[in-house]
């Protein structure tokens, strides 16, 4: 993994020449010009490829002037996660105020490094619903599962990246290598939306709601425990300086960068201005849940604001619905929603993972338990292949051609209605997104954007990229051992947790 770490480091840190990075105010004028030309509107650009999504985040981090606010479900201590942390540290060192909210369940960072970053005067880090990881010893984790089962399963699935309150990114990607095409074995076909203008205000308000919530606790307080039920982690100024120095040294070590990668970087300074020229302007709604999802404290149901907004979107459909979701496990309410749509003549096509491409056997078990019923309802279902032909077009990272092509799986969460409106966000078609996890996303009212996204999903459904669930035996493409494991999960009553 070291080579991929170096390549990503090169791209993240050297996106622009030093002189350009030293003048963020001039660079951000590109965005200011766009906003001035479209008062009262929101701009949108769909980030389909992992590398494009990486470039956009890196460019924005390097050119933030005042603030960066980020929310993520997963933040890994891999290539992307470490270099993203270093990029935010650099922003903080030039005076940018950085606030970070990360869900507790999937954060992967050494205690000392996390605490060192939180100690920076311009960086504040809060952990959402810390019951399983940060500052929580093993014995307390076990007690939490027994005493607060719903609470342990209620996660923040939000993914937002907001810069200067002007421009933001939301969508399916977490901070980990596999979401940006840099994992050696398994990468995701994902989708983000870059947003400018009015919708960013709503996104920032949602961030503030979470920041002020009692469910979000400062890192320093989680490590400042004295009893058996809380970790006690201490770090002095010398240790903090060491963490910062090591992050910077590795990110800037020239021996880690290959010549061809430097050549690629030389063409990157024009990437964001070119991207800005392709932004579509109009009505964009940001939808989000409240911290905690709903008022339930014991049951696993309850729905949320995002669930209601997406249900209304489905109910508005008159001709066709196209969906891309890594998981397909419909609740009774969701099943009725789709049945009603089909009854009024709406054609519904869904692209989801096959057993061969999925990394989530529990979700696959829920889908297999109801697949036949869904097909009989009239849903058209296409199961993504682990080696789709489209992989060659979508994978453009610096690793391409250097390693064996990795497994490619769906992670995009997208809903297109009547080729006129499109949702891009974090919501999966499953009970967990419906009732437990907080979710976010944007609903874009733009026919051109909707048509382009629908066409991309239709391409993913083609025979070279997906199996037809009604006619193909996709499950036979995996080993007997994997089929046996998913059969085991099918026998368990876990649907509300999927």
Keywords:
20% strand; 2 domains; two-stranded parallel ribbon; 21 helices; Endonuclease, Chain A; 41% helix; alpha+beta; disordered N terminus; single chain; 498 residues; 16-stranded mixed β-sheet
Summarize the structure.
It contains 21 helices and 18 strands. The protein has 498 residues and is of the alpha+beta class.
Strand order in space, largest sheet: 9-4-3-2-5-6-8-1-10-17-16-15-11-12-13-18
Number of domain modules: 2
Overall strand count: 18
Q: If classified by CATH, what would the architecture of the largest domain be?
A: 2-Layer Sandwich
CATH class of the largest domain: Alpha Beta
CATH superfamily of the largest domain: Endonuclease Chain A
Q: Indicate the mean pLDDT.
A: 87
Task: Work out the helix count.
Answer: 21
- Any idea what the radius of gyration is? 22 Å
SS strand fraction: 15-25%
Class inferred from helices and paired strands: alpha+beta
3D shape: globular
Oligomeric organization of the protein chains? single chain
Q: Are there runs of 5+ residues with pLDDT below 50, and where?
A: 1-22, 256-268
Separation, N- and C-terminal Cα atoms: 31 Å
Tell me about the biggest sheet?
16 strands, mixed
Share of helix, binned:
40-55%
Kindly identify the CATH topology of the largest domain: Endonuclease, Chain A
